[in-house]
Amino acid sequence: MSAVLEQIFQVGFLAAIIRIATPLAFATLGEMFSERAGVLNLGIEGIMLLSAMTGFTATSLSGSLWLGVLVAVLTGMLMGALHALFTAALGLSQHVCGIGVTLFSSGLAYFLYRLIFGQQSVPPNIKGFETLPIPVLSDIPVLGPAVFNQFSLVYMAMLAIPLAAFVLYRTPWGLSVRMVGENPRAADSAGVSVIATRFQAVILGGALMGLAGAFLSMAQFNAFTFGVVSGRGWVAIALVVFGRWDPWRSAGAALLFAFVDALQLRMQASGLGHIPYEAFLMLPFIFTIVAMAVMSRNAVAPSALLKPFRREER
Amino acid sequence: MFRLEVRTSTPAWFNLALPLLAIGATLVLCSGLIALAGAGVLEAYGVMFTASLGDSYAITETMVRAAPMIFTGLAVAVAFRAKFWNIGAEGQLLAGAVASCFVGAIPMPGPLAMVLMAVAGAAAGAAVALVPATLRVKFKVDDVVSSLLLNSVIYYALMALIEGPWKDTFSGYPISPPIEDSANFPVLLEGTRLHLGVVVALIAAPLIWFLIVRTTLGFRIRVTGENPEAARYGGINVERVLLSTALLSGALAGLAGVGEVGGVHFQVMSDISPGYGYSGIVVAMLARLNPLGVVPAAIFLAAVMTGAEAMSRATGVPAFLSDVIQGTALLAMLVALLFTAYRIRRVGAVR
Predict the structure, then answer these.
(1) Which PANTHER family match (chain B) (predicted)?
(2) By the CB < 8 Å criterion, does B5 face chain A?
(3) Per-residue confidence (pLDDT) for residue A227, from 0 to 100
(4) In which region does residue A220 sit, left (phi positive, over 0), alpha (psi from -120 to 50) or beta (all else)?
(5) Mind telling me how many Å the CA of A260 is from chain B's nearest CA?
(6) What is the pLDDT at residue B324?
(7) What distance in Å separates the CA atoms of residue B92 and residue B75, rounded to the nearest whole number?
(8) Chain A residues touching B144 at Cβ < 8 A
């Protein structure tokens, strides 16, 4: 047991948790904004993949990492706008559109990647982000090197969590988002444009999903592979539910999942795992499904989620 | 001025016109990508067509690929008819594949093995689909998210099997042991891969159509989907109908996995389904949830997939074009469906 505890409190292990949690935190916050406005975005898996690809490509061609991040964010926003067009403006069924956006974006990502880079035996890579120690803070024992000697995108994720909470709960726009997600009819009567607010929330969500994709291909793996996202978008969908549509809780859920994932990787590496690692990877999905059943008594999901808003329908 | 007007009914020719419109729009939109890749649009689509439907061998290959999508398409169509939002056909397919592989590896007379494989696969798929349906009926849990998340659970369960107890001890590859030779589905045409499962898929479509359109259960499924309050008022046990729909839908998706194991791969590996479960959603939407429409819709997607490989070899356009076409077709179809809800009316300037 103490051996396990020692493993857990190693600097490298803590740092790994933070790194695994970062793309999940971005993606989860992105999905949360979208869902709080009443739009389920199942396009997340494909949006992350396409953003990872465009960001990687932009960096690979220009040599600039931040240009790559910008391109990834813009890609996410564009695909968010597409999903919003179908779901918020045209009122089409959100889950089917989301699957459509995922199929379309992943197909496009594969297609363009193969077109630009061809079929190479060794996938091209870039010199990705390097860790950026924060003065003073990174000198704190254990916690310092684990938390404050990270990629700049990690710090952005750390700032994004309180910022998301502030925007959602403390700004007029955040109030509009919550209103159109809970009671679009009332929001409309109060003069809030339901469609415009949903557009904005889904596009903001897309930007965050883009950051998640950028992190994967430009900081974590420094290459684009077809499995670069491998279900992390679906994990984010689960984490939003598990985090009860709250920025803090969702980010906490991302951290918890990252802990389980990092633990699983350690156990695999140390060869002491008698439990198949897949069992750990299944956990967030099973927990979420169970949590949904338990939580269903006190409805916490945005009430207008999955419901299109059409002004003329009364 | 033009105005959108709510439509009260849709003419029957829409069932054919809308998918064709969506597919046409898709091919036009995707021709931009072909041009981007520096190939001739007509040449690329031409190669795609000849390589998938141009000769009898090509047609058999397309049909082999269409079979699992006919099953998943039917699974989704049945579920969506009842407004049971089954996004989990992928996981149900995988469960069906695993169960049938398990049964197929037991030595027994061939025909018996095939029947038991189908039964086990259908039962496994149905069991998986029952989870989101039960959660919805008993706990009011959203079926979209729960059925989607179950896909990942089943996928990891499959991986745990083929990287654990099923792992090939000699090669170390994460693949299951093969099923018994006697359990391999018979090939219907010498020199092709056209197997018995393809025919079963083609028969399943009219059977499911009959079930939906002509039987009491089908009537209940339709009413539950169209108007659950009216269904309840009319004495239909909506919860029970949802559970039955889930069983049927899951069983169909499970059969897709059975066909892949018994007729194509004869074992289970991690990439046994290249997303056939999600393709089923595309197929069902293109078919406007009509079981008979599922067959041509699945053949279309299968032809695109089969033809894309040859197109890529001949023109250098990446074969992933087929994935883009699939996504675009779904989105285009959703937009086209707006014509069933609205009509564009010309309104005079002065009213």
Answers:
(1) ABC TRANSPORTER, PERMEASE PROTEIN, GUANOSINE ABC TRANSPORTER PERMEASE PROTEIN NUPP
(2) no
(3) 87
(4) alpha
(5) 15
(6) 97
(7) 10
(8) 40, 42, 95, 306
Left (φ > 0), alpha (ψ -120 to 50) or beta: where does A269 sit? Answer: alpha
Question: Rounded to the nearest 5°, which phi and psi values hold at B5?
Answer: -125, 140
- Residues of B within 8 A of A102 (CB-CB) are 278, 327
Give residue limits of the domains in chain B. Answer: 2-346
Q: Nearest Cβ partner of B149 from A95, A234, A301?
A: A234
Q: A8 vs chain B: nearest CA distance in angstroms?
A: 25
B240: nearest Cα among B82, B111, B90: B82
Q: In B, residues 319-348, which contact A (CB 8 Å cutoff)?
A: 320-328, 330-331, 334-335, 337-338
At B37-70, the pLDDT tens digits run: 999 999 999 999 999 999 999 999 999 999 999 9
Q: Would the CB atoms of B144 and A281 count as touching at under 8 Å?
A: no
Domain ranges of chain A: 10-119+147-295
| Most distant CA pair in chain A, distance | 65
Of B131, B278, B318, nearest to A99 by CB-CB distance is B278
Helix (H), strand (E) at residue B243: helix B238-259
B331: closest CA among A196, A90, A50, A57? A90
Tokens coding B78? 């049945």
Instruction: Give the number of other Cβ atoms within 10 Å of residue A8's Cβ.
Output: 14
Q: A247 to chain B nearest CA, in Å?
A: 19
Residue B13 above 90 pLDDT? no
Q: Which residues pair with B344 in a beta bridge?
A: B4
* Distance to chain B for A97, nearest Cα, Å: 6
Q: How far apart are the first and last CA of chain A?
A: 62
Distance between CA atoms of residues A63 and A284, nearest Å: 37
Which class is domain B2-346?
mainly alpha
Q: Would an 8 Å CB–CB cutoff place B130 in contact with chain A?
A: no
Topology of A10-119+147-295 in CATH? ABC transporter involved in vitamin B12 uptake, BtuC (1.10.3470)
B286 touches chain A (CB under 8 A): no
Mean pLDDT rounded to a whole number for chain B: 93
**Alpha carbon B339 to chain centroid, angstroms:** 24
* Closest CA in chain B for residue A313: B6
pLDDT confidence of residue B351: 45
